[in-house]
Amino acid sequence: MSALVEIRDLVIAYDGAGAMTLGLDSAELTVARGETLAIVGESGSGKTTIGMSIGRLLPPEARIESGTITVDGVSVVNADAEALRQLRRDHLGFVFQNPMTALDPTMRIERQMVRAIGGKPSRDAIAALLRRAELDDPDRVMRSFPHELSGGMAQRVIIAMAIARSPKLIIADEPTASLDASIREKVMETLGRLREENGASMVILSHDLRLISRHADRVAVMYGGRVVEIGQSATVLERPAHPYTRALIAAAAGNEKPGERLEPILGAPPVLRGPGLKCAYEPRCGIARPECANNRPEARPVAARTVCCHFAEEVAAATSDTEEARTE
Ligand SMILES: Nc1ncnc2c1ncn2[C@@H]1O[C@H](COP(=O)(O)OP(=O)(O)O)[C@@H](O)[C@H]1O
Ligand SMILES: [Mg+2]
């Protein structure tokens, strides 16, 4: 069966005050049916841009310059207003970073749930849905205004709304970033369980490598508006083939021991003013050579994943050596 989502060669520009910024610079991605794909990368790498492009929910200053996006065989780029409305309503469920801004502060949860479900759902049906999102006092939640709920409860309401119409795809943009660290894992579990019960696919956008590594079948690593490495989670996270993936993992590992300084990735991510002619990671890369500054690496298969790096074989070999050394 064909992939549920296919993104090819996608270029998206933002027209800001006086300056153009590229949000995506030839991004490529597929989402298989029933899979959970995590998209990781530092802030500004293009995660939100690619996630929102799937529902064409980009802000007005964004322009799709070229490329294709298909969801279940339907072209999102060419869809008319009615087709888009249908796609968003019937096939996609969104969970955003901050549940409080996603909810309407002036409306009780019950009314917002009715809108999300559509038609005239019974109170029991709404309560059942809230219970599935692990809200154990659904009557109280339904009577509440958003500000009367904790952040975790509000995000569970959003999750219930996102799955209300059994979407084929759930897109969760930093779904636990605004929540207390103590409940992040639990909320992720709920999200994962509901995805599975619905047989849906899920795309999780996150900069938290450790959180998503436990919940994703595949991982896509973004840098400079491109997917620079994509493959099975274990393959990419245990034996990275892109130097940026390797640096991200090192930074996350430093984070594991409280009190210890995390190993930062030196330098800052790029702000793209036009299509890249070189490797966007070259200025920060420890193994960069002249080739990297002269030619942009295109996506190619190396060691069971797809990667954009001229020296991916070398990186993959080095990381599998360290793996072996560790397990000896
Ligand atoms: N509304 C916007 N106007 C101008 N530039 C934007 C806008 N949204 C995102 N960008 C730029 O596009 C790039 C990708 O951003 P984004 O998709 O938000 O990344 P992420 O979600 O990974 O942090 C960044 O350089 C960012 O500054
Ligand atoms: Mg973002």
Q: Find the CATH topology of the largest domain.
A: Rossmann fold
Give me the CATH superfamily of the largest domain.
Answer: P-loop containing nucleotide triphosphate hydrolases
Number of helices: 13
Distance between the termini: 41 Å
**In one word, what is the shape?**
globular
Summarize the amount of helix as a percent range.
25-40%
Blueprint (SSEs and pairs):
Blueprint: E1 5-15, E2 20-31, E3 36-40, H1 47-53, E4 62-71, E5 74-75, H2 81-90, E6 92-95, H3 99-102, H4 109-117, H5 123-132, H6 138-143, H7 151-163, E7 169-173, H8 181-198, E8 201-206, H9 209-213, E9 218-223, E10 226-232, H10 233-238, H11 243-254, H12 290-294, E11 300-302, E12 305-307, H13 312-327
Parallel strand pairs: 3-8, 3-9, 6-7, 7-8
Antiparallel strand pairs: 1-2, 1-4, 4-5, 9-10, 10-12, 11-12
The structure holds adenosine-5'-diphosphate and magnesium ion.
Magnesium ion is lined by residues 47-48.
Membrane topology: Peripheral membrane protein
Organism: Flavimaribacter sediminis
GO molecular function, one term: ATP hydrolysis activity
Task: Please tell me about this protein's structure.
This protein has 328 residues and is of the alpha/beta class. It folds into two domains: 5-91 and 169-184 and 196-327, 3-Layer(aba) Sandwich (Rossmann fold), CATH 3.40.50; 102-166. Helix content is 37%, strand content 23%. It has 13 helices and twelve strands. The strands form two sheets. An eight-stranded mixed beta sheet has the order 6-7-8-3-9-10-12-11, sandwiched between helices. It has a four-stranded antiparallel beta sheet with strand order 2-1-4-5, with helices on one face. Strand 4 and strand 5 form a beta hairpin. Helix 4 packs parallel to helix 7 (151-163). The longest helix has 18 residues, at 181-198. The radius of gyration is 21 Å and the shape is globular. The chain starts with a strand and ends with a helix. The relative contact order is 0.14. Bound molecules: adenosine-5'-diphosphate and magnesium ion.
